[in-house]
C-alpha cells in the first residue's frame, strides 16, 4: 500500500489557510486535519477540541516534556502552538491523508523528522490583499494585527524553502491545487 501523504501547509496570517482547508475538507471528508494545541485564548466561535485544543501554559509544557509534540513553536511572539504527536501517527498508520496547518518554524522541524511530507506555502495574490484580508476578518486588535504583519513579512521571505507555492487567489482554484498535490481526483 502506498503511504498516504502528509501535507504541511504554511502561510502568513490572514492568507486564507483556515478557509481553504475547510473548503478542501468539505469536498474530501476522508482527509484529516490535525488539531493543534495552543496557549492562546479562543476567539468567539472557536470550540475547544474542534479548532484547537486550548491549553494552559503548564499543560503545554507537560506535553512538550513528555515528547507529546511532533513539533511546536512560539508564534507571533505571544503564544505557543504545537501538533500533538499521537493523533498524527495514528492517522499515518491507518493510511489517512493528513494536513498540518502550522507556522514556518514548525514546518522546518517537520522537514527534519518527516522529510517525505509535502511542503506547501499558501501565498496571497499580493501584500495589499493579504493585509486587507487580515483586517477584514475583524478578529484581532490593531496591536495583534501589527504583530501578524511582522510575522507575515518573515514568512513571505521564506517562500523559496517550499517545494510548492499555491496562490490563494480564488478559494476554488487553491483547493484544486491542493487536491492535485494530495493526489485526490474528482
Ligand atoms: N508550529 C505550529 N504553528 C501552528 C500550529 N497551529 C497553528 N499554527 C500557526 O500559528 C499561527 C497563528 O494561528 P492563529 O492563532 O489561528 O491565527 P491566524 O494565523 O491569525 O489565523 C498560524 O501561522 C498557524 O499556522 C501548530 O500546531 N504548530
Ligand atoms: N480566496 C479568498 N478570497 C478572498 N477572501 C478570502 C480568500 N480566502 C480567505 N479569505 C478571507 O480572508 C480572511 C482570512 O482567512 P483565514 O482563513 O482566517 O486565514 P488564515 O487561516 O490563513 O489566518 C477571512 O476573512 C476569509 O474569509
TrEMBL record:
This is Guanylate kinase. GO terms for cellular component: cytosol. Pfam families: Guanylate_kin. Belongs to the guanylate kinase family. It is found in: Cytoplasm. It is an enzyme of class 2 (transferase). CDD domains: GMPK. Residues 4-183 form the Guanylate kinase-like domain. ATP binds at residues 11-18. Essential for recycling GMP and indirectly, cGMP. InterPro entries: GK/Ca_channel_bsu, Guanylate_kin-like_dom, Guanylate_kinase, Guanylate_kinase_CS, P-loop_NTPase. It comes from the Bacteria. Its EC number is 2.7.4.8. Its main location: cytoplasm. It catalyses: GMP + ATP = GDP + ADP. Keywords: ATP-binding, Cytoplasm, Kinase, Nucleotide-binding, Transferase. PANTHER family: GUANYLATE KINASE, GUANYLATE KINASE-RELATED. SUPFAM superfamilies: P-loop containing nucleoside triphosphate hydrolases. GO terms for molecular function: ATP binding; GMP kinase activity.
Amino acid at each position: 500500500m502506498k503511504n498516504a501523504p502528509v501535507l504541511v501547509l504554511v502561510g502568513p496570517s490572514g492568507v486564507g489557510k483556515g478557509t481553504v482547508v475547510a473548503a478542501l475538507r468539505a469536498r474530501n471528508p476522508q482527509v484529516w486535519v490535525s488539531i493543534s494545541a495552543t496557549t492562546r485564548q479562543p476567539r468567539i466561535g472557536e470550540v475547544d477540541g474542534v479548532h484547537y485544543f486550548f491549553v494552559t501554559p503548564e499543560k503545554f509544557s507537560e506535553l512538550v516534556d513528555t515528547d507529546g509534540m511532533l513539533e511546536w513553536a512560539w508564534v507571533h511572539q505571544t503564544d505557543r502552538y504545537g501538533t500533538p504527536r499521537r493523533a498524527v501517527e495514528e492517522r499515518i498508520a491507518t493510511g489517512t491523508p493528513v494536513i498540518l496547518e502550522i507556522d514556518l518554524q514548525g514546518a522546518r522541524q517537520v522537514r527534519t523528522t518527516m522529510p517525505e511530507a509535502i511542503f506547501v506555502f499558501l501565498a496571497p495574490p499580493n501584500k495589499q490583499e493579504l493585509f486587507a484580508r487580515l483586517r477584514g476578518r475583524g478578529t484581532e486588535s490593531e496591536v495583534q494585527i501589527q504583530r501578524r504583519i511582522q510575522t507575515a513579512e518573515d514568512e513571505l521571505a521564506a517562500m523559496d524553502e517550499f517545494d510548492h507555492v499555491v496562490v490563494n487567489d480564488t478559494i476554488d482554484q487553491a483547493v484544486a491545487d491542493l487536491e492535485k498535490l494530495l493526489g485526490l481526483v474528482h
